[in-house]
Amino acid sequence: xxxxxxxxxxxxxxxxxxxxxxxxxxxxxxxxxxxxxxxxxxxxxxxxxxxxxxxxxxxxxxxxxxxxxxxxxxxxxxxxxxxxxxxxxxxxxxxxxxxxxxxxxxxxxxxxxxxxxxxxxxxxx
Length: 125
What we know:
Blueprint: E1 2-10, H1 15-23, H2 27-35, E2 38-46, E3 49-56, H3 59-68, H4 70-79, E4 83-84, E5 96-97, E6 102-105, E7 114-117, E8 123-124
Antiparallel strand pairs: 1-3, 1-4, 1-5, 1-8, 2-3, 6-7
């Protein structure tokens, strides 16, 4: 399972509209995300800055499937006016990707807690 994180930025004055949209994510969009192999997806906000985290079976598959999805195209079209460019995003990136530098996990049934340093690829397994 890959852990993926990236950033987005909400336009000034659009925070309430963004949060309202995410209180009411379309059921068909949620089904589409699940069908793409996303098993966990969280969005955190601090002022205009968003931090998005997901666990996926194959992030490249998610990107390819998103690009072909009519439901995703409509969702992105609805969300586009709410965003502004993320400072530092590279032109060749699909999103302003973040590099995982540490991960801690614990199998609550048997294992003690363990932490690992992560590779600097931006996408971790």
